[in-house]
Give the backbone structure.
Amino acid sequence: MKKWFIILFTIFSIFIINVNAKDLKKNTIEVNDFSLENTILSDFILGEIEYVNFNGQRYKMYPVFSDQSEALNLFKKKNTKFIDEVNTYYMLDDLADNNWLLFAANARKYINEVDNEVDGQLLFNCFFDIYENRAQNDEIIERFDANTKSRVNKDMYAWFYYEMPYTANLDPNLFGIYTEQNGNLQTMSIPSIFDVSDGLAYANQYAISPNGDSGSPTWPEYPYYYFSNGDCANFASQILEAGGVTQAANPGWWHRKTGTMVAGRVWYTHTHSATWSMADDFAKYWGVHELNKYYGIEGFSAALTVGSFIGLDHTGDGSFDHIGFVTAKKTYQSSYCISGTNICRTYYDFKIAQHTKNYNEWVSSNTNGWDTFSGSGRYVIIK
């Protein structure tokens, strides 16, 4: 789930750190080292790299288009049929700079619930992966501008760590989660106690039919909430819990179900840490293996094992967009072609259980789309 559609808050204890306020500003340089060349977005023009100076260090922010309006107009020309289908189905106004969030949310809903093989969804996913970065960078700057107080608490440091792109190479020992166990700032690793067999059993049972309700409040028989427009990290967290991993309040990876008596019956509401329910935060919290290694499905498939939690960044822009769980893998390589294209790749086929879209399918199938990002996106194995 992307962070622009649900805002979740995690409470941190106070940890005071000195920061020079004048260092909190944006800078740019002329050359952009993030490239869209030879990708589905090759006709779009990127802007300058943007940086934020934080506590005496300069950190790279998310890549953005040179001109948001021009990029959106080009997207509309290239993906007219897809846009018309979504707008017609949900009776939306013409896509514009002031309503893109509404369109993007409904487009994801259309893909997940109406037509999961609709033409144009790859361009949609890749385009908005970059387009939304303008708002993300602006939020970072607004939070850390020249008016920032000279002393910030640990909550702000953790926010900075999770909101910045992983390409900024932030040191988790400085920006990560504060652990009660040893007092260090660090990311976590999936514990060795995770029982793959129990995790597989849960994933196979609930991949297609979620073990949750999307109502508010929810029915009592469901132990979890279901995010109908983006449930991948929430589902991965459920698999972890089913495999024996215990929730943790500090560092924060948790889900709460609270009952309230109304008219003689109990109704339930759900709250979550962002690390439980958001793809990017989930991956940053647990950490990843060899971040810069897997740009193609070929090498990625060779490194996987059954029971691996995996992440996908659609364009390699620095934010993880999707989380899945490997439920099966073949022991031999074969050549597979993407339906409707002349693109064929040789890899070890593997099966992914995931939500939104909800399926438990082989990568080679028409339902599973992980291979379509090979060469332009970035794959990771969650620790």
Remarks:
- Residues 23 and 382 are 33 Å apart (CA to CA).
- The first strand starts at residue 17 and ends at 18.
- The mean pLDDT is 82.
- The chain has twelve helices and 17 strands.
